[in-house]
Amino acid sequence: xxxxxxxxxxxxxxxxxxxxxxxxxxxxxxxxxxxxxxxxxxxxxxxxxxxxxxxxxxxxxxxxxxxxxxxxxxxxxxxxxxxxxxxxxxxxxxxxxxxxxxxxxxxxxxxxxxxxxxxxxxxxxxxxxxxxxxxxxxxxxxxxxxxxxxxxxxxxxxxxxxxxxxxxxxxxxxxxxxxxxxxxxxxxxxxxxxxxxxxxxxxxxxxxxxxxxxxxxxxxxxxxxxxxxxxxxxxxxxxxxxxxxxxxxxxxxxxxxxxxxxxxxxxxxxxxxxxxxxxxxxxxxxxxxxxxxxxxxxxxxxxxxxxxxxxxxxxxxxxxxxxxxxxxxxxxxxxxxxxxxxxxxxxxxxxxxxxxxxxxxxxxxxxxxxxxxxxxxxxxxxxxxxxxxxxxxxxxxxxxxxxxxxxxxxxxxxxxxxxxxxxxxxxxxxxxxxxxxxxxxxxxxxxxxxxxxxxxxxxxxxxxxxxxxxxxxxxxxxxxxxxxxxxxxxxxxxxxxxxxxxxxxxxxxxxxxxxxxxxxxxxxxxxxxxxxxxxxxxxxxxxxxxxxxxxxxxxxxxxxxxxxxxxxxxxxxxxxxxxxxxxxxxxxxxxxxxxxxxxxxxxxxxxxxxxxxxxxxxxxxxxxxxxxxxxxxxxxxxxxxxxxxxxxxxxxxxxxxxxxxxxxxxxxxxxxxxxxxxxxxxxxxxxxxxxxxxxxxxxxxxxxxxxxxxxxxxxxxxxxxxxxxxxxxxxxxxxxxxxxxxxxxxxxxxxxxxxxxxxxxxxxxxxxxxxxxxxxxxxxxxxxxxxxxxxxxxxxxxxxxxxxxxxxxxxxxxxxxxxxxxxxxxxxxxxxxxxxxxxxxxxxxxxxxxxxxxxxxxxxxxxxxxxxxxxxxxxxxxxxxxxxxxxxxxxxxxxxxxxxxxxxxxxxxxxxxxx
Length: 915
Known about the structure:
Elements: E1 9-11, E2 19-22, E3 29-39, H1 45-55, H2 57-60, H3 65-68, E4 69-77, E5 80-89, E6 92-106, E7 109-117, H4 133-149, E8 153-154, E9 171-181, E10 187-197, E11 204-212, E12 218-223, E13 226-227, E14 255-263, E15 269-277, E16 282-284, E17 286-287, E18 299-303, H5 309-312, E19 321-322, E20 324-325, H6 332-336, H7 339-357, E21 369-375, E22 385-387, E23 392-395, H8 408-421, H9 430-451, E24 463-464, H10 474-477, E25 480-481, H11 488-491, H12 500-503, H13 508-522, H14 524-537, H15 545-558, H16 563-575, E26 591-594, E27 604-607, E28 610-615, E29 625-630, E30 638-639, E31 647-653, E32 657-663, E33 668-674, E34 681-686, E35 689-696, E36 699-705, E37 711-716, E38 724-725, E39 734-741, E40 744-753, E41 756-765, E42 771-773, E43 782-788, E44 792-798, E45 808-813, E46 820-823, E47 832-838, E48 842-848, E49 861-866, E50 872-874, E51 882-887, E52 893-897, E53 904-908
Parallel strand pairs: 18-21, 21-23
Antiparallel strand pairs: 1-2, 2-3, 3-7, 4-5, 5-6, 6-7, 8-43, 9-10, 10-11, 11-12, 13-22, 14-15, 15-16, 16-20, 17-18, 18-19, 22-23, 24-25, 26-53, 27-28, 28-29, 29-30, 31-32, 32-33, 33-34, 35-36, 36-37, 37-38, 39-40, 40-41, 41-42, 43-44, 44-45, 45-46, 47-48, 48-49, 49-50, 51-52, 52-53
């Protein structure tokens, strides 16, 4: 599913000279400007806004403005009133369905000056779920668990003694009610928040999963944590902003304002607004002055040294204390932890929003500002920072990065996430998520250069996080550069939501770079006011780059800037390729087999000259169907699965038969059907989930998984009435990542031996029923996907727990003997591989290269090796994510490519070579 609507098209249906931008797939305009239409001055602002929409049905096409739109917020700024309204469909909230009405009230009169947002007029979906809430939660947890850890089998996933009766699921889910996903006619879904720790890594998990309420399929999921950097982009681990966490409300009773001081990490001594705690008889980092005249809340800095990121993300850790000192001058511990910087920087950010925009704290109503500093990654360095819906969390840094609060633009970035959450609330995925990051970077940078007196002409002015560097130059270790020249045509990277939440950091500098150029040309004061007005009065949750461009242009025009200044704004966006229809200009070097699949977490199957894949309709609103077609591209694709309302996903084929999974209201079934046509046959029903489907000569293999981390490989031959599980489904054994060729089946196995757990690749000869473990060269800490061809078994193996996840590719004979390395994880440039597929001539892996930042070269790409490893080539030079490879004959590979911003099934007959 995409969370951005199609580019808006300029029209003027009113004929009255007002500017109206109509959205696609909806009759309601996404932007109306240049109007001054009277409306009831005595009514409450929200009522007046809805009355306006109802009275202009010919323009807005909103049939029930009063009942379908509920108030979200009203912001008053002088004579201006901005009302945000949430769309509901038969009482169910529509994800991203938010509409803004802008008004002016003066001298007893009120006029509407403009509107913007997304109201989806085509929704007809029913609102009665066919799936129970409990099953939806189970499916959400299972899907998240499998997405996080399903690509590998590691020793850290060893079962607990006592089996499921004694085990605690690593993740838990909480149902948050029903929503309508605005795709086509609308999709009724449960919103489930999944929390816990990722298997194997222990990284904190906070994800939003939307489970189709008709079939139980997890149709959409993304991380709800918003961070400074993308996963693994710098040292340390990644979290992103989470929903609101409980914490202290900021009670100032017993605290007396004082003037204090401390030394920042740059060596400069700085004044601090602190308080004297009469009860504790000490000075604490709590500013009780800034919000004294409004909410009386605090701006406070808390000592989280020694606390792991898992303890503080999305929740308030127990027994946390503010930084304190016996005197008003805070000591070296407050400096070294980053507390002095966090407190001083938070004061600068608060003052900027208050003085420049009249905004009282992050929510505009004086909310408490809490900063936690010194956070670790399970006792190790943590070079990241995030906003979790209620507070800022700053990592303790590492050998190269100081504590993350040491740079004003980092603190401004995280606090701006809070401002965004309480205004446009841009959904943190895809283009809207990239906008969220871009605006956080823009304002963080603006606050930095303002507070520290840095001219925009300074070579470091556009850098984010440059003051964090310990040894490298600012340009070499900065987290991002707003002056990097990124454009849609050369820099936009299409990725799935599994990668950087759909490119929220990867693509952000395209838009923030345009805003930075605009600021350089217009000056900071004017540019900041334009962008702030666009964010708070025009943008809505699922805006993309084009809508946001329109919002900035409209905000500038409404402020009465000159025609020349408006052209300056347009030139900035044009220079970065943010123009209507820019998505259509992205090219590829592969041949398209099947375009715009609109599916997530579904693979590709290939065999016998045929491919199989899942596809929805063009807007992604219909349940997925399985299609099959020829690898040479000849002939039309044919539908294989029945049209029964279920989601049909993850298909495989051997050229004669297609197999796939079907998500229904009570079970997840494995189904099969001949490619040539015939009846659909049910092979197996799971109550949790299955993955890894493969088929060869009618032998089907798969992996079943559950919410406790259990994984078991099963197989079914044409004559079998039911699958056979290779491990007997014993609780203390895990088998996963299967492959099959002829009568040989290979899979990864985690099993107990001599009081510990061992990893190995096991080979099952279906003809004899005998199993053999492949020879190992080194003890593995984790294993990846297996593959079998007519001569060998291949698999991925990681033997070094301390590296960045590089994998060795191993090969053995079909009886498990003669194991050799095809590619070593210890050689320079070793790949971080996550998937594998083989033909008789070559093996292809999905892999990325170790990097200090996310960019095209570090995205998952396809690499093809000869079976002896003597040659290694890039399969395709496409810019964007490449996933789910399926080997055809020879060196041919089909895969899902996200370069164009959609998910397309593409193919190449031979590698592109070097890119």
